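Problem 12. The chain below contains 120 residues. Write out its predicted structure in token notation.
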Amino acid sequence: MTAVPRRRLVPAYLATGGRAVPGAEGFERLTVLSATGPERPAALAGLEAEHLRLWELLRPGALTVVEAAAHLRLPVSATVFLAADLVEAGCLHARAPIPRAQQTDRSIVERLLVGLRTLR
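Solution.
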């Protein structure tokens, strides 16, 4: 017998509280999220169950917004709303993604290699 995937009881758009714009700006798909501490903050008491699920997911370690969305089975856009609410409440830290490394100038690497060879 094949397992039937479980369907969410609450549609994903309800996790945003009907808002169109998240409270905090600057969240990207690769923004790194982490919990502020191991103990449950008092600020979580007034938030929805989805917020608590996100905070519990991030308590052991950091994840990107995309990874958290996959674990929660929510769209990335809904997860951004949840994360923004938790950052504003002081329950999460958000860090900008690490920028991509730039290409190294090949001539510098070649000169370095020549210099290292002459040291022999």
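Discussion. The longest helix spans residues 76-89. Students who got a different answer should revisit the alignment rule from Section 12.3.
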